[in-house]
Structure formats: structure tokens, C-alpha cells
Amino acid sequence: MPQHPVPNPVAAYGRWIAETPDAWPETALEAAGNAFIDIVSVMIPGAAEPVTQRVFETAAPWGAGPSTAIGQGVSIAPPWAALVNGVAAHALDFDDNFDPAKAHATAVLAPAIMALAESESASGHDCLDAYIVGLQILGRVGQGVNPVHRNRGWHATATVGAVGAAAACARLLKLDADKAANAVSMATSMAGGFMSQFGTMTKPLHAGLAAKAGVMAASLARAGVDAGRETLDGKNGMNRLMVGPDYEALRDNLTHVEHGQTLRFETENIGEPLLILSSGLKVKRFPNCGSAHRAMDGVLELKRRHGFSPDDVKAVHVHAPATHLNNLMYVNPEDGLQAKFSLEYGVAVALVTGNATLGDFTDENALRAEIRDFFPRIHRHPVDKAEGEFPTELVVELEDGRSFRTAVRMPVGSLAAPFTPDQYWAKLEGCADGLLTADRIGALRDALAQLGELPLLARLMEPIRGPFRSIRSE
Questions:
Q1: Shortest CA distance to 378 belongs to which of 313, 423, 439, 471?
Q2: Which region holds residue 212: left if phi is over 0, alpha if psi is between -120 and 50, else beta?
Q3: Does the domain at residues 290-408 carry the CATH identifier 3.30.1330.120?
Q4: pLDDT per position as a tens digit, 62-103
Q5: Stretch(es) of the chain classified as CATH 3.30.1330.120
Q6: Which segments of the chain belong to CATH 1.10.4100.10?
């Protein structure tokens, strides 16, 4: 019996981007709207961060345009707005995670979509539609190269994110199948980023670069620039180059699959299931690396349940997947950025303060003695299992000899424990405090609540155009 050839993934994704009807379930549109609430919230303080200011000051002279650089009070060309706003979205590591791609999805997709939507006079619904499409392709490409791609040190936000952003922008521009495929393919030539940049300003720059890549790839494809069809799955495709020369052996010997990561590009049922609903996004409760959140949630739950104080704690044992602990590489962080990638710091802050806020991750507060004194009491126990196979287990030992244990499979903000509407709006209020006036916060909240009905994105962008009334000084 003749074998049917597997569809080329670049071509298949181009067709799906161009031809899938804009007829999403209401639950998908609601989830996309929530993603915009969350990312706009974190962009506001992110715009005031030094890394964003420096990127803006560098990019602004490259060209004025129709697209808002959030918080800066000016508009610039779409690629540069996507770059600046992408950095703002990821600067504080307070943005969501997306498991199928092992990436920060919305920090790349939303800045690209918003920058292009302003220049194209697109509606709010157009943005939600582009987001759902971009997220699906971002997830499908991520499933084709992960988990190995991420585990071997590639920052998937930068690599897979660039391809997802190109798909979202191709949808927004209403490109035909061939041009949408060219955009997806072209984005692989703009994809790059190493996890060795974690704890530096270049990590949030990765999100901005991927958002810019999406705008440029789709715009160039619209102009007629073509691209190859073997850039995802070919002799020199993304899978073989950005997974490794052992790609086929790894793919063919998989024994455990999480988040649909089969090391194969899904081409037959690209839109089923719809990943925004089946996988969802992990919205962040705390402004640090999500790999610490299960441990922080567990510590807070044990503290709430049993009523012990920080002074009562003799030791905290954290048993977690090695991949999570590898992301948390700073055992003794020296500044706020490194503190975001420290298990010790995150757990200690949760124990001492009962929370973890933006103010806990400044350079000054990262050096607080009352937090650092806890570090020797926090013990790592890496487990060589995937996160879906092994929950984060915590054992808190008290000075009086008692001990308490819990296990956390999914953090607050995931599908297992989703944010309520009140939590989304509270995050917006907390992020905007000190930067936006009360009337601007109200206008922004109204625009976000009605995003799908906005005829133009300008109403959403106006309250966050800036310049902001103050800059955080911490």
C-alpha cells in the first residue's frame, strides 16, 4: 500500500493561518482577552525598567511611525515598537508561560500584534483572532522541537516565539497561504537566543527581538520576499539544527510525552485541540521565574495551613524536576535580575513576607539580610523526571521537631488553578500603581474589558501611551 507523504509543516502552517475561519469559541476569545489584560499589566512597569529605557533610546531614532512605544509618549515604526514593547513585556519576568512551546508566549505575540494593528488600523477583534492563530502555531512549532530544544539551552521565547509572532502577524495582515508560509519560514532566519543570558538584560531583549521578527517577517512576506519550505523539518531544518544531530533517535525513542511535545510537527490536525483552551497559559502570581512558583505556592500554603512563623523554620527541602532547578541557577543572587532566577530567594521571600511582589526584586531588596539569612536553610533535591511526572514536593522542618509536607503539581495561574477576573484586575492595579493616574487606569480597564468590540486599537493604547507620571525608583 503506498505511503501518503507527510505534509510539509511550513506549507501546512501557511494554509492553516490563511484559511482557518475566524469563528472561535467564546471561551477562546475570553482567554485571549485575559492574556491581553495580563500582558498590558506587566508592560506598564516593564516600560519603566532600565533595559526598556535603553532599548527605546536606541531604537527611537531609527524611525517615527504609527505604533506606540508604551510609556514613552511617542510613536515609532512598527518593528521598533514591537521590539521596545516586547522588552517591556518580559523585563520583569511577570508575564505568562506557555507549556507546549516552553516559552513566554504573550510577551512576544501581543507586542507584535499591537504594533502592527496600530499601523494597519486593525480592530480589537482582529488582534484576538491573530493572537489565537499565533499561539497555535507557536505551540505546534514548540511541540516539534521540545522538550530537548529548551533543555539543551535554547531560549524558546526567542526561537519558537519568533515563528509564532510571524504567524500572528501574517494572520493580522490577511496573507494568503503562500505568503503566510513565507512569513513562517523567514522567521526561522531571525530566531535565536540562549539561556546563558538569563539574569541579564538580554533575556527580556529576546522577547523584543522575537516580536520584531514577527512584524518584519510578515511584512516582508506581504511585499513578496519568498522563503524556503524546509526550514522547520528538512536536512537543515530547525529540528535538526536546534535540537541536535541526534534528533531522529530522540524522536523515535520517546517514552514519555508532555504538553504534546512529540518532536514531530503536527500537520494533519493543526487546530485540534485548540491550545489556548487545552493547554492554556500559566499566568504569573509572582514576578520571577515560573520554575520557582510551585515551590513558592507550596511554602505559602503550608504557612497558611499550619501557622508557623519564619523564625520557627529550621529547614525547607524542595524536591523538584531537575529542569526546573536548572532554570533557577542563582543559589546566591547578587542583584534583582539574578534573584528572579533563584529558588532560594523566591522561597525565602515567600516565607518572610508572605508574598512576592515587584518591589522584592529590586537590586537593593535582593540584598536584604533577613532574606539572605534563610538561604542556608533551603535545600535543593533535583529529580530526574519531567514536570508532569513529578510535582514539586516540599518538606518544612520546624525547630520544635515538627515537619509538614505538601506536593504542588500546577501553580496558581494555570488551568488547574486559574486566575479569577478579580485577580486579573488586581494585577493590573498593582502594576499600574504609581505610573498611571486613577482615571487612566479606569480608561485602560474599560478598553481591555471591551477589547473584542473596539473598532480600532487606539482606544487601548491611549491610556498607556505616556509619558508616565513617574518612574519607579526602587
A1: 313
A2: alpha
A3: yes
A4: 999 999 999 999 999 999 999 999 999 999 999 999 999 999
A5: 290-408
A6: 9-278
Q: Look at residue 474 and tell me whether its pLDDT is greater than 50.
A: no
**How many whole angstroms separate alpha carbon 454 and alpha carbon 362?**
36
What pLDDT is stored for residue 199 in this prediction?
86
pTM over 0.90: yes
Beta partners for residue 320, in sequence order = 382
For the domain spanning 9-278, the CATH number is 1.10.4100.10
Length in residues, the chain: 474
Q: Which residues contact 270 (CB under 8 A, 6 or more apart)?
A: 12, 13, 16, 136, 137, 140
Share of the chain above pLDDT 90, in %: 96
Do the beta carbons of residue 168 and residue 134 sit within 8 Å? yes
In angstroms, the Cα distances linking 339 to 135, 326, 437 are 29, 14, 30
Q: If DSSP states are collapsed to H, E and C, what string results for 51-66?
A: HHHHHHHHHHHHCEEE
